[in-house]
Amino acid sequence: MTTKEILDELKLYGSDSIKKVFFKHGAKEPFYGVKVADLKKIQKKIKKNYALSLELYDTGNTDAMYLAGLIADDKKMTKENLNHWVKNAYWYMISEFTVAWVAAESNFGHEMALEWIKSSEENIASAGWATYANLVTLLPDEQLNIAEIKSLIETVEKEIHQAQNRVKQTMNGFVIAAGGSILELTDFAIEKGKKIGMVSVDMGETACKTPYIPEYIEKIRQRGALGKKKKTVKC
Q: N or C: which end of the chain has fewer CB within 10 A?
């Protein structure tokens, strides 16, 4: 399929009700409002396509950008590709999901996460925290720097309430991911979560809420998923 053919198909799947929801969350024109389930129908036909994913992302169309992440051949992504993507991820559905997924499953996830976390740009920093959160849910513990992750949790404790809006959200998610995916850090993450307390994030005109770290990790425990790793973070 060509980029034009895909855009034409996305238009057919477009939904005004989905557009309204996305607008409330921060999306901007141009986009059609395509359900993820419908994006996956196109993904199944394409599977992985590195060049096409780059073209789709550069359309600036949210639906196409999200699809680009689903079909991206992550191991072919360069640091230049990833930095280009994160700089053009104008709202959190792209920066914290599409970009963070692809970065985490690329050959440069750890490097990109640490670099982006330091950014003064909200969407880039939030993508960094989301990327590292994905890494801890993907990689075996022996491939992770546990001391570094522990130090980052302490950084979150100190800085989260003064951080930019979406950065607070992804910092919070990082602590949950670390506590839920690394048994060695479960109790530590819960302890720090109690000290952090509830985190206030402006979700705009939506019903979304930021989870309380100890409660969320306890939910992971209750469903028997503590320490379990994912095969992929894309969904």
A: C
